[in-house]
Amino acid sequence: MRYAHTALFLVVVGSLLVTAILGCKPKEENTSAKPPPPANAPTKVEAPPEPAATEATPAETTKSANPTVEIDTTQGKIVAELYADAAPKTVANLLALAKEGYYDDMAWHRVVPGYVIQTGLGPEKPTILDEVNTHKHRPGALAMAKPGAQPGSSRLSAPDSASTQFYIVLGDREKTRHLNEEFTVFGQVTEGMDVAEKITQQDKVKTIKVSKADG
Fold this sequence. Notes:
215 residues
């Protein structure tokens, strides 16, 4: 009987030891989870969104490279842009004459109120080719004058005969539209149109200065 109790005691003690050993087995780590980054690893920063592009205004996208002249008269100053892009030879001719002082102290010999004022002399300088373009005769337009056509011609003027004389348009398009096909428009008044309208045959061109060179 004593041996039976001893055996039972040993069985119970063994069971307790097995249970204790199993209970102390370390818990397996879940290796599927991503480890945290090292303390000194760079952190990815989301870049701020790009600002929306602003559409450029016409003033920002188009800058004229055409020259500008100041026509100083006894009535005041007239400023004009010259269309070197549309009439390059005509503009170059006028700029050369202005730089040599050709127009200094010259009369406005033709003044037709509400129509045109005109300066320059007869073709005493070399003539230039016509450069008729898409610019029209409108108030403030600068255009080259030419001698009249030969009798019996269907034209208003002799082709390629412009030299030094130019005029500034005062009248509206209806009064001057017949000039568009034959006379080269090479500029436009940008300031001083009120001065041009005051000009009489007693007034003069004091000088013509280039205030902004081409390009």
